[in-house]
Write a structure and sequence with these properties.
The protein has nine helices and five strands; from the N terminus they run E-E-E-H-E-E-H-H-H-H-H-H-H-H. By secondary structure, it is an alpha+beta fold. The protein has three domains: 64 residues, Nucleic acid-binding proteins (OB fold (Dihydrolipoamide Acetyltransferase, E2P), Beta Barrel), CATH 2.40.50; 74 residues, 5' to 3' exonuclease, C-terminal subdomain (DNA polymerase, domain 1), CATH 1.10.150; 74 residues.
């Protein structure tokens, strides 16, 4: 089984990377979109890898650190949750956010992740609450070393997102690939344009956009529930 890969990014696709190792072999690796946003062509990268063996394929899933890989492997062990949903979860929530969500039993926030319905969310909440403490933190885990995180440097102005068209388009593409509708994508981009912060870090922008969209989904869910309850009172 392949557990770790170190090499150079030779191709950056919609949801995966092609990483060439020193031996000249190129590996196609699916990664969370937040990690994908940090990658550039010819960038040196180190990934912790989960290998999935199927009858007709060998699939690789890469993560920036060991804890993310363990989290992914824990999630896909849940019945009804596959690798695609596992990547979607880690594209929207980092480990600290997931821990907080489970501690608060915030089912609505979990349902805000594209692809996760109420039934799956309830099952994930039940299973992960029992297993989340088994997922290591690097602050407390002394048995593994964390690979150096790669950062994508941009020569963009520091003013507003509007002046940084490549970043804005990459942000739109990432959100669209996560399953958000065009209206939601435009709302998230507009929100970031009006907000202060680092508009040169695509990974940070994706996180901020996902936070905005997730909060909006929760508010919409609560509003819809209140409307239904109001109609029930009327009738």
């Amino acid at each position: 089984m392949i557990g770790y890969i170190e090499g150079v990014v030779k191709r950056r696709c919609a949801d995966r990377l092609v990483v060439m190792t020193a031996s000249g072999v190129g590996y196609e690796i699916r990664v969370p979109l937040v990690l994908l946003a940090k990658m550039a062509l010819n960038q040196e990268v180190e990934l912790w890898v989960h290998t999935r063996v199927r009858e007709d394929a060998l699939e690789l899933f890469g993560f920036a650190d060991w804890a993310e890989r363990v989290c992914f492997e824990t999630v896909i062990q849940i019945s009804g949750v596959g690798p695609k949903l596992g990547l979607s979860l880690l594209s929207h929530l980092d480990l600290s956010q997931l821990r907080r969500l489970l501690f608060q039993e915030d089912l609505e926030a979990l349902c805000a992740v594209p692809g996760i319905g109420k039934r799956i969310a309830e099952k994930m909440m039940l299973e992960l609450k029992r297993k989340i403490d088994d997922i290591p933190d690097y602050e407390s885990d002394t048995h593994v070393s964390r690979p150096q995180k790669v950062r994508l440097a941009f020569d963009a102005p520091e003013s507003v997102v509007e002046e940084c068209h490549p970043l804005r388009e990459d942000l739109k593409m990432a959100l669209t690939q996560l399953g958000y509708k065009d209206k939601e994508v435009r709302a998230a981009v507009k929100h970031l344009e009006q907000a202060s912060g680092d508009h040169n870090d695509l990974s940070l922008m994706v996180r901020q956009a996902l936070d905005f969209l997730r909060k909006g989904a929760v508010v919409a869910s609560v509003s819809q529930r209140d409307s239904i309850q109001g109609m029930q009172k009327i009738f």
